[in-house]
Amino acid sequence: MNLVTRSNHLFLKLAQTNWYPCSTSFEHCTGNLLIVRWRKMRLDPPNLNKRMKVPFKNPLEEGEQDEISRLHQMNNFKDESLRIYLKKLYHKAIDSAAAEIREADEEEQEHRENMEYLNKENKRLAAVREERIRKEVDERLEYVMLSKMRHNEKAQRLHEEALQALQDAEELVQSFIPADRIAAALEEAYDNPVDYNYAIDSKGFMYPGLKTKPTDIAPEFRPHLNDPDVAKIGAIDLSPLRQKHAEKAAN
Amino acid sequence: MFILYEMAFIVKHLPKIKTLTVAKRCVDQVLKAGGYVSKIESLGLQDLPQTMEGNSKGSYFVVRFVAPTASLDSIKTAVKLDEELLRRFFVVITKNKPVECTLHDELKPPIYRSEVQKMIKEADERKPKVPYPERNVELLL
């Protein structure tokens, strides 16, 4: 599209080259032509015919300047208040950030103190645990030692018991009566009966025999309970008594 | 390890030869069962505590022997069937525990006896060491 009108075409070529189009209109468009208004730049020199013209300013009414200055001042105040408000918001945000940083520092400090306390407590508990474990180990070792000693004692005792049983068995085997001597042993036993009965007085003296009277045995012949020979029952020798009875029967 | 048995029996009041024959017959049962006799004792002719089968007297014998445990029942049965015996007993011999004479202690007054002191000590130990807590009146109110 050709942006230059027919009317302005010559003038544009003659006058200014730095003019610029300020508005366009399609109302009177005919064919491929467009109506354009042109305006010169701000620092271009004024037209020659208006070179000496002084611009006329309308005088202000009374009080209008004051009103304008007041409005201007109010506008400045509003701007100032808004600026102060924004500044406050900014400082507030800054303070909150500082507070957050401070809180984080405090938390870090508290965490550090807690960790120190925990480490100290862990060390103390570890010492207590080590002491306890050492004590338990000592007790266990002592128990093991005692049990080992007890086991050895038991083994020794069982060994001695086994040896004793073996010895007893050997003695018992030696005391076995052969089959051909059974009749003789029976006759011997029949001839020499054993009497396990005995009486006892309050002083511990014994009177062997079922039908023995206290006067039958002289005090020097009376066996005592504490005598080692009388420890096993049946070991009381009745020969003095029998001898006495025989003498009595003879008389 | 031997198990020592003791067989005691009472023979009727018979002449010596017959009594010894009966005793020999009993002991032979042990030998027949594979046992060995270690000791033979006679307690003599004694009055019976009661009349047994019309007898007021009997000869007491004690025989210690070793025999297989499985054959003990056969010995018992054989001895039980003997009509000349009034009574028969079988026991297992165990070792006697050593006994100490405590007569001097038993003659003391009860409070000084060791057994009584032991009983008192046990009774004291049975008492609850911590007394029951007293009832809190304030809580009830």
In quaternary terms, these chains amount to heterodimer
The level of helicity of chain A is: 55-70%
* Alpha-beta classification of chain B: alpha+beta
- The arrangement of helices and strands of chain A along the chain is HEEHHEEH
Strand order of the largest sheet of chain B: 2-3-1-4
Give the CATH class of the largest domain in chain B: Alpha Beta
End-to-end CA span of chain A: 189 Å
Average the pLDDT over all residues of chain B and give the rounded result. 89
Give an account of the 3D structure:
The complex is a heterodimer of chains A (251) and B (141). Chain A is mostly helical. In chain A, 57% of the residues lie in helices and 7% in strands. Chain A is built from 4 helices and 4 strands; from the N terminus they run αββααββα. Chain A has a two-stranded antiparallel ribbon. Chain A has a two-stranded antiparallel ribbon with strand order 3-4. In chain A, a hairpin with a 5-residue loop joins strand 3 and strand 4. The radius of gyration of chain A is 72 Å and the shape is rod-shaped. Chain B has 2 domains: 89 residues, 2-Layer Sandwich (Alpha-Beta Plaits); 38 residues, no CATH class. A 4-stranded antiparallel beta sheet of chain B has the order 2-3-1-4, covered by helices on one side. In chain B, a hairpin with a 2-residue loop joins strand 2 and strand 3. The interface between A and B is medium-sized, with 25 and 28 residues.
